[in-house]
Amino acid sequence: MAIHIVEEANRCLTCKQPQCKLKGCPVHTPIPDVIKLFRERKIEEAGQLLFDNNPMSLICSHVCNHSSQCEGNCVLGRKGSPVHFSSIESYVSDTFLDRVEFEKPTPNGKRVAVIGSGPAGLTVAITCARAGCEVTVFEQKQEIGGVLEYGIPDFRLPKQVVRRYRQVLTDLGVRVRPSTTIGGALLIDDLFLDGYDCVFIGTGAWRAKTLGIQGQARGNVYFGIDYLVDPRSCDIGRDVAIIGVGNVAMDVARTVLRNGARHATLYSNWGGVSASSDEVELAELDGAQIEYGLSIDLINEKGPVFRRSILGEDGSFVGITDEHVQVECDTVIICVSQVPKDKLAFTTRGLATSEKGTLIVSEAGETTVAGVFAAGDVVTGPKTVVHAVDGAKRAAAGMLHYMGLE
Ligand SMILES: Cc1cc2nc3c(=O)[nH]c(=O)nc-3n(C[C@H](O)[C@H](O)[C@H](O)COP(=O)(O)OP(=O)(O)OC[C@H]3O[C@@H](n4cnc5c(N)ncnc54)[C@H](O)[C@@H]3O)c2cc1C
Ligand code: SF4
């Protein structure tokens, strides 16, 4: 049954110390203020408040882990049901984007290059454009959105929601150059040569972590992050084994079951899962099964071969036994996390990375190259949309300060 958003808003106590905002939300969404405006039917003002705080508010209303964030910290949830703010946020942000007419800001003479159009890049592009900068977004793929477009499945985040941001960029005068990889034909040095005052890197984490085992290069083996880009292009058969039990693995399981597979089994090498409980429940509801305590050893012509794990009393991984378990399947999909690609680090002198390949930045989001800022997964490693927005807001403020605008 759909949540009745007016009833939900009326239940809110508009707390003086709102834990939903202060503790629950990484970008401190002003939830009680938004709800007050909503109750007064000031929908556009409520939407403006949300957008000013988080330009990705509409996306977050769809994909944030609300039950551990705003809704998980709502005081009403202690003894009953929390206020379902995500449904209110979705309605308000959707209506706001329908009605808003962004005015072209007065140009301030500064030019900004944004590399990557995921939530981090979009947040920086929108923030800098609203401050009057001339912004160009360079995106290696055809469409904007990053993981929102090419990772999160359509049944969780419809593509038309992501594509609404095209209009926002157009209204704000932001130019987008699709199918353009910086670190390929064009380098960061070329951007400065062409007169950009500041560069933002929001290139995410798109290199699949490998397992270092035999069989990963077989024709029926994929990495989850690559598979999700275009599931219909992969011939997966009926039985799919998924190595890994994080959120990406759950998305892969739910996607294969919608694309012809009859059985999707996820394998955990310990006694639990790393995905959020909501995602696990939905994957199981869709028919996915989870097997615990099996450590991948190799992949042969029949499918994955595991060794049974030794587990501690609490289910933690302690070691592996000599007992082998052969699983037969049509396709294996490996989902054991991602790291950033290293194109920009290789082609930009002085751009320092951590051992994990993430970019090193200051508090203000500046990398080790003057005038080059970064945020999102390329800095934190794989995290969430709202964390990418949080870092991008800080980086955008740092960029405006660097250009003498704040
Ligand atoms: C399958 C999956 C499901 C997820 N589900 C959720 C969820 O439900 N909720 C949630 O909060 N988070 C989720 N996440 C995590 C979340 O999507 C990411 O944390 C977030 O998208 C990171 O944003 P970003 O802008 O840093 O990078 P990305 O979204 O990865 O965007 C980076 C962009 O940069 C482009 N790019 C890369 N290199 C270059 C280059 N050299 N030149 C030009 N362009 C380049 C890429 O094409 C891409 O468009 C999920 C992640 C995955 C993989
Ligand atoms: S904690 Fe719950 S009741 Fe209090 S302001 Fe937030 S949503 Fe409303």
What does this structure look like?
There is one protein chain. By secondary structure, the chain is an alpha/beta fold. It is built from 16 helices and 15 strands. Helix 7 (119-130) packs parallel to helix 16 (385-402). The chain is globular. It binds flavin-adenine dinucleotide (FAD) and iron/sulfur cluster (SF4). Flavin-adenine dinucleotide binds at residues 63-64, 115-121, 138-141, 146-147, 151-152, 181-183, 202-204, 206, 225, 228, 247-248, 251, 343-344, 376-378, 382-386, 388.
- Per the principal axes of the C-alpha atoms, what is the gross shape? globular
The unique ligands bound to this protein are: flavin-adenine dinucleotide, iron/sulfur cluster
* Number of beta-strand segments: 15
Kindly name the structural category.
alpha/beta
Determine the strand fraction and express it as a percent band: 15-25%
Quote the distance from N terminus to C terminus: 47 Å
Overall pLDDT metric: 97
How many domains in all?
Answer: 3
Rounded Rg: 22 Å
Low-pLDDT residue intervals, each spanning 5 or more residues: none
Q: For the record, what CATH class of the largest domain applies?
A: Alpha Beta
CATH superfamily of the largest domain: FAD/NAD(P)-binding domain
